[in-house]
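Title: Prediction job returns without error message
Component: structure pipeline
Severity: low
Priority: P3
Assignee: unassigned

Description:
Job completed but the reporter wants confirmation the result is attached to the right record. Sequence as submitted:
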Amino acid sequence: MLKLTVLVDNNTLIDKYLTAEPGLSFWIESDGRKILFDTGYSDVFIKNAQVLGINLNDIDVAVLSHGHNDHTWGLNHLVQYFDRTMKSDMPEMIAHPGAFERKR
């Protein structure tokens, strides 16, 4: 079974009091694995995960689909979150081969 939760996109569900931004981040649960797919543009995905009761310290795999800043700029916030919460084991990281190349 696959469960997909939108942590960030450019829309918001008013009754959940989530924040939107021009970025993308999904929380995926499948076959007992927890996957963070993209990190959005800022730390909004972290704040929305907290509202939704999702513990980002449970991440098994972090995936970056490509290198645009609306999909990757939250990565630094994720590392800071791990530091603040004292996460000892870092998740596996999967990224498009060009994700960290300079953008024009």
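Comment from assignee: result matches the submitted record. The two ends are 40 Å apart (CA to CA).
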